[in-house]
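For concreteness, we quote verbatim a single protein encoded this way:
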Amino acid sequence: MSKTVLVVEDDKAVQKMLADALEGEGFSVICEKDGNWALRTFENKEVDFIVLDVLIPVMNGFQLAERIRKHPKGTKVPIIMVSGVYRAMSHRLEAIKKYNVVEYLDKPVKLDQLFSLMRQTLGADYPRPEPEPPPPEVPQGYADTQSITEKEEVERQEGGEGEPEEVAGSLSERSFPEILARLYRQRTTGALLMKSAKIKKIVYFQDGRPIFVKSNLLNECLGRIMVAEKMITPEELDESVQRMKSSKRQQGTILIEMGCISPHNLVFALEKQLEVKLFDIFSWADGEFQFNPKASVETPITTLELSPATIIYEGIKRKFDAARVENDLLAHMNSYVTPNPDAKLRFQDMVMDDEEAALLQSFDEPQLLRDVIAGAVMPRDRLVKFIYALKSTGIVELTATPGGVEAPPPLPAQPPPLPPPVRRQAPAPPAPGIPVEEREIIDMLLKKAADLKQKNYFDMLGISRTASAGDVKRAYFALAKEYHPDRLPASVSREVRKVAEELFQYLTTAQEVLSDTKRREAYVRELSTGVKAGMSDEVTRILAAEGQFQQGETYLRRRMFAKAADCFKEAINLYAEEGEFHAHYGWALFQSDPENRAVQRQAREAINAAISLNPKIDRAYLFLGYIHKGTGRQDLAEQQFEKAIQCNPDCTDALRELRLLDMRRGGPRQGVPPRR
């Protein structure tokens, strides 16, 4: 029986990295973001090991460790503490002496060191990864309504037109990684129907990125995923199903009410469910596929957050047999492993460890594949899967000759840090907004776009007018890696992704012009006449729209609702594709005249337009919930507050509203901790 590790970490990227790595070792993993929920989870679940970050919300890691040690279950449970801030020897000694921790590690955590400590601590109880047996068929009564509806919908689906370039055929002719890579290169939007015997799945793509998966397997319903991940017990699942049937409410929020999971773990489970559905396809030995570019793709609240390259590598690692991979590479043993000259493909975001990153960097000097495999220290099965993933994604190419292009100098294994963001001068509105890190990315991109509008190609690349073609390439590769659109979180808005795509294209155009002698000479002549190529009119409109939005936020904070609505409306006129503009316009409009039914209708329409553009804006659901509450529709308000939590587990206003609704029904919401 596998051991369960509780990971307490508020950084989502680090949390996911640790969870995936520990699951790869054979552990079951439960993740929590704050100390309060971590303590509740520890008290209610069977936990065999704890990996605990020191700097976490509500109560810090030291306080949590103290509470755990005072609990009857916690006197002997092994704890490894980690910190990227408190690195002094005194902190380490205090943690070991006072809380009896196994070790106190600095961030970033080295996985080999973590696993070694856990092996030493657990000894023979350290698990061994074993192939997962196929789960038993789930009775329909144990599946939530959404899963049953999804099963019926998927089974009705047939393939559409196999475009572009007839993306259709058999998995015996084209592997699933190749299909994903091709759709990414073509930046396609649509639905990919996968069939194997009686199993059907639909993978939805937006601009080449897999964002959502539907399946006809009830084994992949949310409740069963949470039981398999040891997030809830079978008894808790049964109880939630009964409550769901009687109340017609969402299973996730019922489990939060029951105190079984935290809001963050609900989101974790929904994301895990999508991954289970998707990675299962990598294990298919045969099957058929057909892509339909005309299929309607509506972005759901929860989407796959992994980049296409990371999905491909993870799927190969988890589901591909090493012998199958070696057989594919056998024909390329006398080929050279060379970085793809196309920076868009070369610098795709693929999650890899330090050893893998160093190996990829070594390919800046082309090497024969047979020499790479013969000379690598990395275990052979892991090595061939890594190279196969690099080849499948197009990050590297296997070529007959090493090529005659000038190789750029080695680049850092990881992209350099983003420049410090330009903070908004306007205060934030009182309602919760998009995550801070996403706002910082928006600010950085908009600042960079405004900066590039003022520069010529030479200044933008940071080179002199006498720079060689090699200098141009080196400068371009450094910037291309930093501003690659894959670095953006999958959840960012269309506005942000559009700016990032144009920034990258502008960098690419500068490199292409300055690397070609004739085009460079023509460009220099244009500069001498005062003509300068710049960003598109669309980016100019986006920048102007952001200015109006910021002004609207200021008016909203000052409760000058009519003026705020005017600013948000002007932002929409400038750039109508940004959902956040519509959401704020609807809310300001309602606040300007909350008793006017016509205004109420217009406000709801504006916010629904926001959700249609971007279903991940928690404020849109919160605003809509407030409007329904204000107009006496408590049932509709509750649905919107639930969606706000699913969108953003830190949406405390939505949690508070749900707790108040629960109290009016006769009891406090058990799963929502009291505010401290």
Summary: The first helix runs from residue 12 to 24. Residues 540-665 form a domain with the Serine Threonine Protein Phosphatase 5, Tetratricopeptide repeat fold (CATH 1.25.40.10). The mean pLDDT is 84.
